[in-house]
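User: Sorry, what's this?
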Amino acid sequence: MSDTANRWSAEVTQRDRHDLLEGVFAAGSAQEIADAVLAAARSEDGDESVERRAMAKLSFYENRAGRNLSEERRNALEGAKNIVRDSA
């Protein structure tokens, strides 16, 4: 993998950490995760909808965690995705 790719994902991860509550993905309930990503998405400027930006954050975290994500955390993220979808 190139250094550019490493820097890109590290930059996104670092930027999102500032926008989200520390540790919300690791220990939060589905509702807490959904609330955090929606609040972070509302604080950003962009052409995409708030729900779309929130879903992108959830998917990015889930993809970065990959196989290391426990079944409990995966279920919490799926629950958060459902809450974000229903908020549209």
